[in-house]
Every structure is written in C-alpha cells, then in structure tokens.
Amino acid sequence: MSRRKEEDMANNSKQYFRIEGEAVHLITERIERTVRLSDLVGEVSKETGITTPVLPLGCRFFSARNGHSTFVIEQAPVVRAITWYGMGEKERWKLAFPYVIFVLSFRDGNGLSGSKIFYRIQPVETFDDMLLSTNMGNTNLNGQLCTGNMRVNGETQAQKAESFVGEFWRSAWNTDINESWNTHQHIKGVSSLTMWEEESAKNPFFPLSIKWQKYGCLRDVIEGRC
User: Fold this and answer.
1) CA 158 to CA 175: how far, in whole Å?
2) What's the number of CA atoms in the CB half-sphere (13 Å) around residue 7?
3) pTM score
4) Does 16 map to a domain?
5) Number of domains observed in the structure of the chain
6) Any domain includes 199
7) 18: closest CA among 77, 72, 59?
8) In terms of C-beta density within 10 A (0-12 exposed, 13-18 middle, 19 or more buried), how is residue 152 classed?
9) At a CB cut-off of 8 Å and minimum separation 6, what does 78 contact?
C-alpha cells in the first residue's frame, strides 16, 4: 500500500471507546465517503418520494406508517438528578443510568399517542436489537409510562418528542406504579435508592454491567407486537 493511500485512510478514520460491562473497546471507524446532507436528502426524495421531518436530538430511528409516526430516541449513560417521592428519607437522588431508549409515537395531527421507555447496555444499531425493562418509577415492565401531569410543547412532532423527553426527566416519580422497580430490587447495586446512589458515585457506568430483564426487540415494540 502506498504511503499516500495510508495517509488518506488515516485522515478518513476516527477512534472512540465503547464500554461493555468491565470491557473497554477501542473502535476504529473509517469514513468511506462524505457528501452534503442536502444532496443526500435530495437524492433520497427523488428515489423514494419520502420526506422525513427534522429529527429530535438523539433520534436513532424514525418510522412512519398508517398515519402514525414513531421516533426512537437514545440517550447515553449518565448520572441524573431524579425526584422520587416515597422511596426513603429524601426525595432527590443522583442516579446513574445505562443507555435509555424512548419510543414515542404520534398520530396524524401531531398528537402523542404512545410513550415507552427501555434500557440498553449498548447503543441501538438495528431494529432487531433487544430492549430491556427499566427499574424506574411510574413505569411498567412493558415500558409504558405514566405521564401524570406532564405537558408537552412544540409545533412539530420532533419538537414535541424533545419536549417530552425533557419533561420526563424533570417530572417527579412516586410509588403509584412500582412494577419495574420491584422486579429489579434483587439486583446488587440497585436494590435500594441509597445503594444505587452510592454505586453511581463510585462508578457512573456500573448500570452497563447489570443483567436487566429482557423485554423484546425494537421492531416488535414499534409495530405493536409487544
């Protein structure tokens, strides 16, 4: 291989770390070709006749069929300040989360028609990836959220999806629906909010090594089969 070609390959590649439990992988990703987004969208539109909306922050997949649109939004592992009533001697907790996946559906007219939330210990890559049940408050094992008094703002579906995600994290959880929490209480590290907070302070990525309960693949959730 010529020196010029080696230099071109190096300039078109990037490296990043991927964490899987206790293993940290150094990944090298090579860019084969770069085109302007506007050119790509123009070509796709000419070929398929499909126009997608401006996607919300963190959107990994978008699906539109039978008058319904679905956004799959992924958020990276992070420690969050959570309000959770009735779960101990205090109400504010700093808790580490794995990848969090929101599946938000809208009907014609931009109204939110469904909201589910799941965990992943790796980023979503395909529609066949397995989703995991959470241990969050006000959440069922099937990912269905109790939205309570949450209010969603925005003119477009994408804006409303972003608003929903932000309002969810700002909302206060309680003990009205404890199905997801109770199911995962036997797991070391998250058996209580006190322990969860302590483990989060020691290692913000510890939720990536937990064996959360499997629920179903992303495709089945989007298509309403589970």
Assistant:
1) 30
2) 3
3) 0.76
4) no
5) 1
6) yes
7) 77
8) buried
9) 96, 97, 204
Q: Please, what is the Cα angle at 153 between 151 and 158, to 5 degrees?
A: 120
Structure tokens at 129: 């990836």
At residue 15, φ and ψ (nearest 5 deg) are -125, 145
Residues 182, 214: Cα–Cα separation, whole Å: 15
Q: Please report, in tens digits, the pLDDT of each residue of the chain (226 residues total).
A: 544 544 444 455 666 667 766 677 777 766 656 666 655 555 544 444 445 567 899 999 998 887 788 999 999 999 999 999 988 889 999 999 999 999 999 987 668 889 999 999 999 999 999 999 999 999 999 999 887 778 888 888 899 999 999 999 999 998 888 899 999 999 999 999 999 999 999 999 999 999 999 999 999 999 888 8
Sorted by sequence, the CB contacts under 8 Å of residue 167 that are 6+ apart come out as: 150, 151, 152
Is residue 38 one of the residues assigned to a domain?
no
Contacts of residue 80, defined as CB under 8 A and 6 or more positions apart, other chains included, come to 94, 95, 97, 169
* Residue 104, domain extent: 53-222
Asked if the structure places residue 27 within a domain, the reply is: no
